[in-house]
Amino acid sequence: MSISERQFEAAQQYSWLRAAYYHQDMVETTLEKVAGDPNVVTPGLTDEVPLDYPDALLDGNNVVYVVPGTETSERAHLSRPGVEDPDQLLRYQPATEDFLAEVFA
């Protein structure tokens, strides 16, 4: 997880930040695995794109998001522009509160 000491300290105080930093790490890890494919563009690995921009584009126009596998997250992402099929969501197992508390202890 690539966060600053200040971000780490803030995450120790605010549980919602723990989940946000964990999610960012999961997105980066997943996208790094596919970034070598010339058919995949991974704007989600940069800070220059808006927060709601797709994590990846396949063949330049097929939107892909990396999301926690929760009903709420899936429903929210399925309503985004360009997402027409649940297969456009790459799901990961969401972290438990206990796990996040341990990571940021």
Q: What's the gist of this structure?
A:
It is built from four helices and four strands.
Helices, strands, pairings?
Elements (H helix, E strand, L loop, with lengths): L4 H9 L1 H20 L5 E2 L14 E3 L3 E7 L2 H8 L10 E4 L4 H7 L2
Parallel strand pairs: 3-4
Antiparallel strand pairs: 1-2, 2-3
Task: Explain this structure.
42% of the residues lie in helices and 15% in strands. It has 105 residues and is α+β, with helices and mostly antiparallel strands. It has one domain. A four-stranded mixed β-sheet has the order 1-2-3-4. Strand 3 (62-68), helix 3 (71-78) and strand 4 form a beta-alpha-beta unit. The chain is globular. The two termini are 14 Å apart. The mean pLDDT is 86.
Secondary structure tally: strands = 4
- Straight-line N-to-C gap: 14 Å
Overall average pLDDT: 86
Shape: globular
Overall structural class, as computed from helix and strand content, comes to: alpha+beta
Percent of residues in helices: 40-55%
Number of helices: 4
Spell out the helices and strands N to C.
HHEEEHEH
Tell me the count of domains.
Answer: 1
Rg to the nearest angstrom? 14 Å
Strand share of the residues?
A: 15-25%
Identify low-pLDDT runs: none
Q: Strand order within the widest sheet?
A: 1-2-3-4
For the largest beta-sheet, the strand count, sense and barrel status come to: 4 strands, mixed
